[in-house]
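# step 3/5: fold
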Amino acid sequence: MILLFFLINLLNPVNAQTYLSTHNHWTQYPYMAPYLSFQQTTPYWALYGSLNYSNFYSPTPWAASYGGAVINKPSLYIYTKQQKKFEIKFTPLTYSHILTSSPRLDHGTLKSTSNSLGVFKHKQSSYDSFFYDICGSEKFLQDTYGFCVDHEELIPSLVKILTNTGFKKTSIEDFVSHWNYKIPHSARHCVYPQTSQELEQEYPLQVLPKPSQLVRLWFLIIPEEYFKNPSPEIIKFKKQPALNWSSPFSESKANNDLSVFEWGVSFLQSDFKTSK
């Protein structure tokens, strides 16, 4: 059966339609391929369970629906020495909109209690992290510092940065398990890391009580093909990084007091084809 699906895909190859889009990318994977080479409709089983969500295997479902130049998918990890109440408030500014979150925000605020294992409870449920989707503008992000790597080197390179930044093993495992399947296909990618210096201008995050550490690190990832024909609607990121990025978090480590670590992955909203 697996061999049959492989042959079907070989005869009916599917390239990434767009960098970001709202459609389900089920046809990119052998075990989710059409039964016949000429079949283009989604099979019935793709409409059930987790496969029903358009971003199950793609970076995001939101771009075409909500607009905005950048789509971000950050995750926050809260570390405390002992059980401690905390409050996180999100106040995205002019160009940004929070689209969804888990757990659900109450008027942009999350109130919860964390324990020493990095787990927090919210309304009778336990969470290892706080996850949200946000769309916004690239206007406030830096496009000078970064690096470019081959597709196979991308995840290992980002994992190395997260490790050196002080993210714990579980948060890095979450990163790998999520983004191993959602990076757009391309031979090479360019990465523009964004830290609090950029993020607080448009995506401010307030934590109470004030944490001893608040580490925010997002990676804006752009397939190299984009630079051949950049979108006229996107003001910045017309060229590859001019200077190599140097991490300002080399000495950051989660300590025993309240610490908040956030990683995020961002993509430009643009219609262009990438190579598989």
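# step 4/5: annotate
Confidence is low (pLDDT under 50) at residues 5-35, 50-54, 61-67.
# step 5/5: archive (pending)
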